[in-house]
Design a protein that fits this description.
- The chain has three helices and 53 strands.
- It is mainly β and 619 residues long.
- The strands form eight sheets. It has a twelve-stranded parallel beta sheet with strand order 14-17-20-22-24-27-30-33-36-38-40-42.
């Protein structure tokens, strides 16, 4: 109840048609106002006009909708008012009115005393409190947003209070710098969080070797169907600082959720990578149906997000994911040079994923792979990599592999991989023996891959092979039903390289590699008349490169110290034995190198010397 001063003549007690509401925001039909002199039960006069000439009856009645006519008070009188229902039963007693009434509205529950009605036909009466609670700010729970104070407790209090709000409510981080030294636990189902142009910075977690719990993440989402959104990449930012090993956002054993329109920066410049690559990733979706309370597969949509500067992967999909989509996003600059524990992929997709889709993304400048996928010992299905630009990654643009080193197991693998309409360009920029555009294979006698389709891709200028395919022997651990129908050109070691034990279900469209090369890495029996293949050279202390061809099979086990000069030539040697290249004579490279079977190395001749410029070592 508010007084409005009308000069020095009178005070307007109630603006026209203000309603009287009960605790449930329902209008009180026929309500009454009794006015007394403060501190007494002596009736006090009130008026219908500011000149105080027309006295109102007492009590002053409301209409059927709980509305009162304008009521003017004598400024010389200190009033007490009792609000009563139609039967005269008191509902509220305010004594005195005036400054005390204003304080009533100013306290925490004051908005419950004020009515609200939206414009338009069909609008219903509500309290201002109910309207305000549609959007809740972390400031409402004591967050400072000054970039210095730790706001962890205030933010977590705001999240827990969310359980009491109406469906459709939203928790807002306004435009400010919020420091978080703890963990933000999102454990209320169907919660909506808006990062409204803010920056969330902090150092929320340190890793203890061998311990994953309590799980380290800036935002840890454990409830289903939660949404975290911003107002644009570079505008809404989650920034890990201070050497934390935490993830940025982790969805852990949830049925679903979404992330959109924000940037997550892993802060790799300040950290040392840990061996447990579950952490130090801007965005992780981790699920095991056994650990998920509902026993469901996770569904998470990631759209219009920038994921950058991870010590491990910029994005990680691990476990029983039944519909993860990453679309229209930028994944870049993952991995730390000269730290072996730092993997540095754009996205890692491992351990029993189903229905994962990566589409319309820019995936670039990561330390190792743009896209890395392995079953990691649990059957995986229906991976789709489409319409992306994958460029300048250090090892491979895309790796799809089954290896013992990645926990692959015999009889487990991946089915139905679709790689379509991507640009895979200029990958292999790092110092790796095996690198290039795209790689698929099974190794170490474990894992299988079947029904891999690669079509419509432009695979160019990769520093290594355009496509590398290798496989185990044995029916249950092979690469089968693989089809390559890509446009390839300018890949340094060859456009397609095929390895041992491949069978006739592995096919490629040679017409789409005009002027390129198809390299046989050993005993596949599938290559004939391959462009650029120049025959066989027996290893010896001095070898001579024939004038025809640029890819040669190298036999024997001798140590090669000199290659006869052929200025301007660039050649690839594919090992069919176990020869060694020494760093004596005219061979220029950092260290001597033994070339195992089915491996390749590339040299370019400048003047009298041959310089190593690339290779693919089959360890």
């Amino acid at each position: 109840m508010v007084l409005h001063r009308q000069g020095s003549m009178a005070q307007l007690f109630t603006p026209p048609f203000q309603q009287t509401l009960d605790a449930n925001a329902n209008a009180i039909s026929g309500a009454k106002l009794f006015f007394y002199v403060s501190g007494t039960t002596t009736p006090a006069k009130v008026y219908a006009d500011a000149a105080l000439t027309t006295e109102l009856q007492s009590p002053v009645p409301a209409d059927a909708a709980g509305r009162f006519v304008p009521i003017y008070l004598d400024p010389q009188v200190r009033y007490r008012v009792i609000v009563a229902d139609a039967a005269g039963a008191p509902i509220r007693d305010v004594d005195p009115i005036g400054d005390t009434a204003i304080a009533d509205l100013a306290d925490g529950g004051g908005s419950a005393l004020v009515g609200f009605r939206a414009e338009g036909a069909g609008a219903v009466d509500r309290t201002a409190q109910a309207k305000a609670r549609e959007t809740v700010s972390v400031f409402d729970f004591g967050a400072k947003g000054d970039g210095v104070t730790d706001d962890s407790a205030a933010i977590n209090s705001a999240i827990q209070a969310f359980a009491n709000l109406t469906a459709g409510s939203q928790l807002v981080f306004p435009r400010a710098d919020f420091r978080v030294d703890g963990r933000i636990l999102v454990n209320i189902p169907r919660m909506a969080i808006l990062l409204d142009g803010c920056r969330i910075i902090g150092n929320p977690w340190r890793y203890t070797p061998g311990q994953q719990f309590p799980f380290g993440s800036f935002f840890l989402v454990t409830a289903p169907d939660c949404d975290i959104s911003g107002t644009g990449r570079g505008n809404s930012i989650i920034q890990l600082t201070g050497g934390s090993e935490a993830n940025g956002i982790t969805f852990l054993h949830t049925d679903g959720g979404s992330v959109s329109r924000l940037t997550i920066d892993g802060g790799k410049e300040q950290v040392t990578a840990v061996e447990d690559d579950t952490f130090m990733t801007p965005l992780s979706v981790l699920n095991a149906t056994g650990g998920n309370p509902s026993g469901k597969w996770s569904r998470v949509l990631v759209s219009d997000v920038e994921l950058r500067n991870a010590a491990q992967y910029n994005a990680q999909a691990y476990g029983d994911l039944g519909g993860l989509e990453i679309v229209d996003s930028h994944l870049h600059n993952g991995g730390i040079a000269n730290q072996s524990a730092s993997r540095g992929a754009g996205i890692a997709i491992t351990r029993g994923n189903r229905g994962v889709r990566v589409s319309r993304c820019l995936i670039e400048d990561n330390k190792q792979d743009g896209v890395f996928q392995t079953s990691a010992g649990l059957d995986s299905y229906d991976l789709s990599i489409t319409d992306n630009i994958i460029r300048r990654n250090g090892r491979w643009g895309g790796t799809f592999t089954e290896e013992a080193n990645f926990a692959s197991q015999a009889g487990q693998g991946t089915r139905r991989i679709t790689i379509k309409n991507n640009v895979v360009d200029g990958n292999g920029t790092g110092s790796f023996d095996s690198k290039g555009g795209l790689r698929a294979g099974t190794y170490d006698g474990v894992g299988y891959q079947s029904d891999l389709s690669s079509s419509g891709n432009i695979v160019t200028r990769n520093i290594g092979y355009g496509w590398l395919v290798q496989t185990n022997d044995g029916a249950s651990n092979k690469v089968t039903r693989l089809n390559i129908d890509d446009t390839m050109a300018g890949n340094m070691l060859g456009d397609i390289a095929i390895g041992a034990k491949l069978d006739a279900t592995v096919r490629w469209n040679a017409a789409k590699v005009p002027g390129g090369s198809i390299v046989n890495l050993g005993d596949s029996g599938l290559v004939s008349n391959a462009r650029g293949v120049g025959g066989t050279i027996a290893s010896a202390s001095t070898i001579t490169v024939p004038t025809e061809g640029d890819v040669f099979t190298l036999t024997g086990t001798a140590t090669i110290t000199t290659i006869a000069p052929s200025p301007g030539r660039q050649v690839t040697f594919v090992s069919a034995g176990n020869p060694t290249f020494a760093v004596t004579g005219n061979i220029e490279m950092q260290d001597a190198m033994t070339l195992p079977g089915n491996s390749a190395v590339q040299f370019v001749c400048i003047g009298e010397s041959w310089f190593r410029v690339g290779g693919s070592i089959n360890a």
